[in-house]
Amino acid sequence: MADLKLTNVDKTYGGNVNVLKDINLEIETGELIVFVGPSGCGKSTLLRMIAGLERITGGVLEIDGIEVNDVPPAQRGIAMVFQSYALYPHMTVRENMQFALKIAKKPQAEIDAAVDKAAKTLQLDDYLDRLPKALSGGQRQRVAIGRSIVRDPKVYLFDEPLSNLDAALRVATRIEIARLKEAMPDSTMIYVTHDQVEAMTLASRIVVLANKGIAQVGTPLELYETPENEFVAQFIGSPAMNLLPGKITGTGAQTTVALDNGGTAVTSIATTDADMGKQVNVGVRPEDFEPTDGSYIFKDTVDIVEALGEVTLAYFEREGEDHIIAKLQGIHHELRGKELALTADPSKVHMFHDGQSMR
């Protein structure tokens, strides 16, 4: 398997439309890296550049220390699984999986062994003689993954492989991909998705792309607990983190912020006298809000209630802005139309100045 290194990688279309700029990233053997970001941020473009399907217009891409900018896709030792299954409809599962090896003129015994091993790993043993039309969507995607596995590539690339599946199949196939990674601990995988649940549950590290570059790289919990900027803070987590503007009025081991809404926030982020009076945004995740009868961070009338069974989402309307959302344990239909005051543990309160975390 392989290490990858991207150094100052750029992508420009038509000589003047820049979509990715100064991408610097190192991926080690055995990692499952997930690219996430808003639509149009360049996730799939970056993946295709690694595969060699898009030309790199600046910077260097290395695989195992060797520059591969001008190496054809077929010679990079990379296998790619696309959003569409792209199976040959007239071929059986076995024939689809062995097709690339036959083209490479591998011995039949080697082909059979590779297909049988991949089929066992993906639990496709009983479907090898079926045509794709006789398979479910999840089974077809597993065949597409199996077609990559038999090639024994250096790097596996997944471009939103679960997007075409319904919710139940997506969960089942996501679990199968996680099991596949456990069965192939030395494999290097790069996975593109817009689904946060996929990213948080599959990734060893997540790369958040935004504004033509990388907003933050870290483990799922690092991005959730210590976002480096407001973009990551609001992109990771569902519902998104609430941001409340205010001004620092107390510094030290804990910081006090007088919020524009009349509330007061205390955070465990340390500040100095030089920070006194700074305009900041206080961030609180919906699940970290707690009802209170005392000092509050936010207080208003509940506009909408979504009772989801285990939790209730309480929405507070803000004119011209996104809703403030609290995620409360249990069912609370009675909250709609009532005033509710909320606070949070100081260790759970984030603080941002000019868009960057002050932690």
Order of helices and strands: EEEHEEEHHHEHEHEEHHEEEEEEEEEEEE
Helix fraction? 10-25%
> Based on helices, strands and strand pairing, what is the structural class?
alpha+beta
| Helix segment tally | 8
Would you state the CATH class of the largest domain? Alpha Beta
For the sheet with most strands, the description reads: 6 strands, mixed
Q: Sum up the overall morphology in one term.
A: elongated
CATH superfamily of the largest domain: P-loop containing nucleotide triphosphate hydrolases
What Rg do the Cα atoms give?
24 Å
Number of domains: 2
Strand runs, count: 22
CATH A-level architecture of the largest domain: 3-Layer(aba) Sandwich
For this structure, the CATH topology of the largest domain is: Rossmann fold
Taking pLDDT < 50 over at least 5 consecutive residues as the criterion, the unreliable ranges are none
Question: Can you offer a commentary on this structure?
Answer:
With 359 residues, the chain is of the alpha+beta class. The radius of gyration is 24 Å and the shape is elongated. The protein starts with a strand and ends with a strand. The protein has 8 helices and 22 strands. The chain folds into 2 domains: 4-234, 3-Layer(aba) Sandwich (Rossmann fold); 239-357, OB fold (Dihydrolipoamide Acetyltransferase, E2P) (Beta Barrel), CATH 2.40.50. The relative contact order is 0.11. Helix 2 crosses helix 3 and helix 4 (137-149) packs parallel to helix 5. The mean pLDDT is 93. A hairpin with a 2-residue loop joins strand 9 (205-210) and strand 10. Strands 6-7-8-3-9-10 form a 6-stranded mixed beta sheet, sandwiched between helices.
